[in-house]
Amino acid sequence: MKKAVLAILASLLAINLLYSQNEDKKSVLGINSGISIPFEEFDNKTMEGYAGFAGAGANVEMDFLRYLGRFFGLSSTIGYASISFNEDAYKAEYDRILNHYGENVVNAGNYQVLKGMVGMIIKIPETMHTEVLLIFQLGIAMSVHPDILVSNSELGVINSVEKNSEWSSISNAGIKINYWLNEKYGISLNYNLNSTRPGFYDNTGLEGTFFLPIRYQNINVGIVINL
Predict the structure, then answer these.
(1) Which of 69, 83, 81 is nearest to 123 (CA)?
(2) For residue range 116-159, what is the model confidence (pLDDT) as tens digits?
(3) Beta strands in 17-103 (DSSP E)
(4) What local confidence, expressed as pLDDT, does residue 206 receive?
(5) What domains can be seen in the chain, in order of their start residue?
(6) Which helix (H) or strand (E) holds 88?
(7) CA 106, CA 206: separation in Å to the nearest integer?
(8) Distance CA 129, CA 217 (A)
(9) In a 10 Å sphere around its CB, with 0-12 CB exposed, 13-18 middle and 19+ buried, how is residue 6 labelled?
(10) Which residues of 44-80 are buried (b: 16+ CB within 10 A; e: fewer)?
């Protein structure tokens, strides 16, 4: 999958460089923030497979876009997301597994993802001060698994996971809509899907390490500045 994405990006870049020589070039800085929403296994609230018990969170991103022609360009992004851990859903699963024996208490932190990415833009030319950009990126991310402590009033501590982090590759696909208020400044609406699969250690687990598919979508608003 990643090889196919890289091949597509390389092909688009080659086309871009061939046909962008006579087009106006433009550099744009974007800053946006909004909500992060987990999906697929990361959003799963039952103890099956790679359930992440993740909930909604917040994120902030900074983009640098370089238009090399009317239809193509390059992009780079730095982003940070803090995604909640659903303690109530996790507690409900322990209540179910233990058949409501004793009282369970769950304390957990948040998932965190810091990413750096580069990629390509497919651009729809500006119309009525509005432009639409499709963005495809690959990069690296540091993901942080929260500390988790589960205690039972009758059994004591029944599960604990220490906070730990791991570097892994990350992919991103999204759409960005810019509305230019004037030649210098504009506002933007952003949507993107992010996917990474770090390996975390768990001293209480049978294998010691587990891989967690972290997949989340960002819905952001922000500003763009024509540099």
Answers:
(1) 69
(2) 999 999 999 889 999 999 999 999 999 999 999 999 999 999 98
(3) 26-38, 54-67, 72-85
(4) 60
(5) 2-226 (2.40.160.20)
(6) helix 87-97
(7) 21
(8) 27
(9) exposed
(10) bbeeeeebbbbbebbbbbebebebbbebbbbbebebb
